[in-house]
Amino acid sequence: FKDGKKDNVQITGFELLKPKETLTYHLQVDTTNNYMANGILNHNLHAICFMPEQQISMGDGSLKRIDEITIGDMVKVFDEINNEIKISPVNKIMTKLHDDVYNLHLDNGKILKPTGNHPFWTKDKDWTTIDGHNPNHGGGSGGSSAGGCGRASGK
Questions:
Q1: How far apart (Å, rounded) are the C-alpha atoms in residues 149 and 107?
Q2: What is the pLDDT of residues 37-71, one digit of tens each?
Q3: Lower CB count within 10 Å: N or C terminus of the chain?
């Protein structure tokens, strides 16, 4: 999303980081099953999928590491029914150890740091994952690839 409107970014590549157990994070927010990570719409229903240094889009337009977020912080979410960005409080923070974490490179220079089974909203496949987990936590199927499109926001 850019300036509150849908925008597409290309996935230029991704690589599996060293296979070691890494503490990953998940935010639970009001009313939606998603939030913005560095301006990119991603699912958050059951996935505990971001590394500690992942930047989250805050309600005031700033970015904050997911491991520094506290309950009550306001983050950007996307209302899929009304097709608009909203602000929602963080109600719960969960962590889990994962050994399949990636750097996901985008053509706008941003890098996301998800697990392989974390769902992202993509232009042609709806909710999809790096590893093709089927069905994924977002309810979709299929895997993402370099050259695929994801939906993003300005921040």
A1: 10
A2: 888 776 666 567 788 888 999 999 999 999 999 99
A3: C
Sign of CA dihedral 50, 3, 79, 127: negative
Confidence of residue 23 (pLDDT cuts 50, 70, 90): confident
Alpha-carbon dihedral angle through residues 69, 74, 90, 49, given to the nearest 10 degrees: -60
Q: What amino acid occupies position 95?
A: T
Nearest CA-CA partner of 20 in 99, 114, 97, 95: 99
Phi/psi for 14 (5° steps) reads: -155, 150
Whole-angstrom CA distances from 143 to 5, 29, 123, 136, 148 are 25, 26, 13, 10, 10
Contact 107, 14 (CB under 8 A): no
- The distance in angstroms from the start CA to the end CA of the chain is 8
Q: What share of the chain is helix, strand, coil (3-state, %, to 5)?
A: 0, 50, 45
Give the ranges where the chain is alpha helix by DSSP (H): none
